[in-house]
Amino acid sequence: MSGKKLRILEVNKAYHPHIGGIETLVKQYSEELGTVCGAEVRTLVCRDGRGRTLRENINGVELTRAGSLGTYFKCPLSLSFVRLFRKMAKKADVVHIHLPFPLADAAAMLSGYKGRIVVSWHSDVVKQKKLMLIYKPFMRWLLRRADAVIVATEGHINGSEHLPEYREKCAVVPYGIRPEDYLSIERRPVLTERATDKTAVKVFFTGRLVYYKGVDVLLRAFSKVKGCELFIAGEGDLEPKLREYARKRGLDGRVHFLGFLPEEELRQAYADCDIFVLPSVARSEAFGIVQLEAMVYGKPVINTDLPSGVPHVSLDGITGLTVPPSDAGALAKAVNTLAADPGLRERYGKAAAERVSSVFNEKEVIKRLYKVLSGRRTNR
Questions:
Q1: Which pick of 47, 51, 66, 195 has the fewest CB atoms within 10 Å?
Q2: pTM
Q3: How far apart are CA 56 and CA 121, in angstroms?
Q4: Which residues contact 36 (CB under 8 A, 6 or more apart)?
Q5: In whole angstroms, what is the distance from residue 218 CA to residue 328 CA?
Q6: Residue 311: CB partners within 8 Å, gap ≥ 6?
């Protein structure tokens, strides 16, 4: 393909402003593969909810949102997506599909597309067992058909029920961020301003308040934590129960529910915290980009030893501490250890910032991704 631009079709369930880690990643790829690597990128997704097909150009990205009849089992139902996939794939040198997304597997199978297919495997389908009964044959077909399977860490392969047999076609391409975007913000003590005790060690969590994030475990742990205040940014179905738990345990003055924070204020919160905690309890947490967003500011991270990519991002004893999932006692001990030792927090935090700069820098990640998409393998 020398002498001409690589034509890439990015395929995902949804796109910005839909909130989600994969959607953020697909936006990054769609924009940066063109600007960093000179590729010609088109992106195909489905509309949120019901609606007709919509075509847009956002930040130079040719985006098609296929019409949808609604969402079932958290997956859009769209006949036009299948038709558009067939049409747009014909003009692509490589189709890059982000999974899990059952409709994309079916569309690839039905399209008759003979060109290069690269799959980005973000996580197994963990909770929806009934969906897997229908989805598994399509998923296995696509994994066999794919020329390469991209994973963010070795943990994605080792912790998956499906990927080990395709290990030879897997390539590790970590998720990345642009440190300069984070470090250039105006610093403001957005957590300190809300603290009851201005001298307390500030522990921060951000994410959706859903079962696999483990915020209930974090609250149980906090009953055993001393000298700290906890700040929780995010919304979700479990918020009323979590608030009620904190109230009944007398944690009101030490636990602060911040709700949704705009991007700039969220970054200010990362910069103002002393410890970042990701207490996830299930493999649905496949990576945890929020770890990178805290680490870039030199913050130590406490994460959990999930069979996924999570403990491969912030490393135990190097950039923070890793504890068993769902273990409130171990989580409390880790928080207390870091809270009592400013020197240890500083050492882990410095290593965390260096790790983001060297391993997870977006520009280098995009170049590595481009090599896989174009057929020039990158070593794991």
A1: 51
A2: 0.83
A3: 26
A4: 363, 366, 367, 370
A5: 7
A6: 155, 303, 304, 305, 322
Chain position carrying tokens 């009953």 = 223
pLDDT tens-place values along the chain, 380 residues long: 446 899 999 999 999 887 777 888 999 999 999 998 999 999 999 998 788 999 999 988 999 999 988 776 667 778 899 999 999 999 999 999 999 899 999 999 999 999 999 999 998 876 666 666 777 888 899 999 999 999 999 999 998 989 999 999 999 999 999 999 999 999 999 999 999 999 999 999 999 999 999 999 999 999 999 999 999 999 999 999 999 999 999 998 999 999 999 999 999 999 999 999 999 999 889 899 999 999 999 999 999 999 999 999 999 999 999 999 999 999 999 999 999 999 999 999 999 999 999 999 999 999 999 999 999 755 45
Counting beta carbons within 10 angstroms of the beta carbon of residue 180, is it exposed (0 to 12), middle (13 to 18) or buried (19 or more)?
exposed
CATH number of 180-359: 3.40.50.2000
Distances (CA, A) of 69 to 51, 66, 81, 105, 204: 7, 10, 11, 18, 39
AA letter at 279: P
CATH 3.40.50.2000 in the chain, residues? 7-176+361-374, 180-359
Angstrom CA distances, 151 to 130, 306, 370, stand at: 25, 16, 14
- DSSP run (H or E) holding 350: helix 342-359
Superfamily the domain 7-176+361-374 falls into? Glycogen Phosphorylase B; (3.40.50.2000)
Question: Tokens representing 14?
Answer: 């949804």
Which of 285, 293, 344 lies closest to 318 in space, CA to CA?
344
95 has which bridge partners? 9, 117
